[in-house]
Amino acid sequence: MATDLIRYDLLVQDALRSVVRRVLAETAGRSGPNRSGLMGDHHFNIAFKTQAPGVIVPASLKARFPDEMSIVLQHEFWDLVVTQEAFEVSLHFSRKAERLTIPFDAITGFTDPSVPFGFKLEPRTAEQRAEAESDPDASPAPRPEPSAPTAVSRTKPEPATPARASSEATGKATGGAGAAKVVSIDAFRKK
Asked: What separation in angstroms does the CA of 82 have from each of 89, 137, 148?
């Protein structure tokens, strides 16, 4: 079997990270007096490595989820800020507002159960980032982002439904009837 010198697997992962970045940026850009930031029934489950470089979460959450955790952006989230490298958001954990910073390279999964749509990612290592930055042809050109970070603030949260946690950490995502079909990057690799 030939060696993949192009590294399609990394290109696909970069493209999927761009999907997350764009969706969150569009959500953050939908701020205003009559807008909630989310379109229709869309909401997002985002899994990430808590020990990845650049992740900022409260120590109590890192102790509770030492490897990976998931957050839900649905009813109760505030001040969503999206940059080229990461996003920041305020969520409630045990009735206390906390600010999280999550680099896109730390994300391991993204789902939008309302459609359903989802995928899994492998966290991007520092070596992969350095390789991509040193060789501009190794990854697709980044989409231009707004010059300033965009933000959304939800001052009047919608009431949470009992069937869905709004922003509480959920650990590993679980499947079930009607759950989003999650496609692993391994599905694209030749064995």
From this structure: 9, 25, 9
Helical ranges in 30-155 per DSSP H: 59-64, 126-134
Total domains in the fold of the chain: 1
**Residue 122 falls within a domain, yes or no?**
yes
Residue-wise pLDDT tens digits, 100-159: 999 999 999 999 988 889 889 888 776 666 666 666 554 444 433 433 443 444 433 333
pTM of the model: 0.66
CA 104, CA 84: separation in Å to the nearest integer?
A: 9
- Is 165 part of a structural domain of the chain? no
Q: What tens digit of pLDDT does each residue of 132-149 get? A: 666 655 444 443 343 344
φ, ψ at 115 (rounded to 5°): -100, -45
Tell me which residue range forms the domain holding 139.
8-32+42-156+180-188
CA 169 to each of CA 6, 114, 123: distance values in angstroms, whole numbers, following the listed order? 37, 19, 19
Q: Give the CATH number, domain containing residue 97.
A: 2.30.30.220
Distances in whole angstroms, Cα of residue 21 to Cα of each of 18, 133, 161: 5, 18, 27
